[in-house]
Amino acid sequence: MHVQWEGPMDRALALAREAVADGDVPVGAVVLSPAGEVIGEGRNRREAGGDPTAHAEVVAIRAAASSLGTWRLDGCTLVVTLEPCLMCAGAMLQARIPRLVLGAWDAKAGATGSQWDVVRDARIGAKVEVVSGVRAAESAALLGRFFEARR
Questions:
Q1: Residue 72: enclosing H or E segment and its boundaries?
Q2: Which helix (H) or strand (E) holds 141?
Q3: CA-CA distance, 136 to 92, in Å (whole number)?
């Protein structure tokens, strides 16, 4: 069912694992071009860079926009290990990304279907396709191990 997203999610998971080395929450993201090529990638860098906006999704979106030379990411896909928060969902909308592929849901702060559904809110004209559950158990386990070690 989710076979086409396995490769990109594998890369996102690898990026998430890299974030742990800097003490960042293990979240990774890639942006795919309309042709399916990786044009941007990112991992959480809040701790590493002291930047509260350096979520994996924002880092990946910035890289993709730079790669394409435009802020409009029409036809692109954002693949991320954890459901985006309000800020990241807003960044997706601002970049005009029409598809989100996510691993684990974020029951506390998710903004693409769990707590809120900003990316499909008719009041703002949002029409993002959300594909969920791609390697969800692996994504959730990575996050669980990270937070367990912090307790």
A1: none
A2: helix 136-150
A3: 21
Give me the catalytic one of 41, 47, 57, 148.
Answer: 57
Among 91, 97, 89, 95, smallest CA distance to 118 is for 89
The per-residue pLDDT for 71 is 98
- 80 token code pair: 């991320």
Instruction: Name the 3-class secondary structure at 129.
Output: strand
Query: pLDDT by residue (tens digit) across 28-43?
Result: 999 999 999 999 999 9
| 57 assigned to active site | yes
Q: Identify the residue whose tokens are 């900003």.
A: 118
Q: What six digits make up the tokens of 53? A: 């906006």
The Cα–Cα gap between 31 and 38 comes to 6
How do residues 71-101 score in pLDDT, each as one tens digit?
A: 999 999 999 999 999 999 999 999 999 999 9
The whole-angstrom separation of Cα 141 and Cα 122 is 33
**Inter-residue contact 43 to 19 (CB < 8 Å):** yes
The confidence band for 1, taking pLDDT boundaries of 50, 70 and 90, is low
